[in-house]
Amino acid sequence: MTDFDAQRRRMxxxxxxxxxxxxxxxxxxxxxxxxxxxxDERYIEYSYSDQPMPIPGDGRQTISAPYMYPxxxxxxxxxxxxxxxxxxxxxxxxAALAKELVGDEGIVVTVExxxxxxxxxxxxxxxxxxxxxxxxGDGSLGYPEKAPYDAICVTAACPEIPQPLIEQLKSPxxxxxxxxxxxxxxxxxxxxxxxxxxxxxxxxxxxxxxYVPLIGKYGWVEK
Length: 223
Description:
The protein is of the alpha/beta class. It has a single domain, classed as Rossmann fold (3-Layer(aba) Sandwich), CATH 3.40.50. The protein has 6 helices and 9 strands; from the N terminus they run H-H-E-E-H-E-H-E-H-E-E-H-E-E-E. The strands form 2 sheets. The chain has a 7-stranded mixed beta sheet with strand order 5-4-3-6-7-8-9. A two-stranded antiparallel sheet has the order 1-2. It is globular. It starts with a helix and ends in a 14-residue tail after the last strand.
């Protein structure tokens, strides 16, 4: 029988050494959330491998490599009580980590456009008892019903950061998104957008990444 707990502890220790995990809160969240519970059963043995893996959907959806979650969440500096919007629910693993970071008083809203993937995520999150708002819809439009958000995380490649998401971000607030073309060779810029108290926006590129395309009105692929 696979000892997933031992694999999870080893992964977290490795990510701390590699400086992906920088804070105690991120360490605790990644130690607590069982990634194996968000995997397609066919690939569960790869739960703690450093690579994206397929999940139910139309063939494009994946659960990101686990090190990508602290790469996204550490710069967002999620705190207890924050309201967070995630675009691209996928397996639900990212939403579970975000919920651990914002705590019971925080709110996590996550939007998924593919119905099969949506059902997979809802099942995973409900089974583990995570109180997360999961929406089936076009994530490139955001979710104005719960706006504004302290932080927004886009987990698919955008031609540019969708304007509705910038509008739904608080002042101050932070947003992370892969921006750029769909070449698996060139990848995208992982952009951290920061909005100050006056609503002024500043963007900076953190690194190069490779993500699946954002689907929707403001994505690479129309719904």
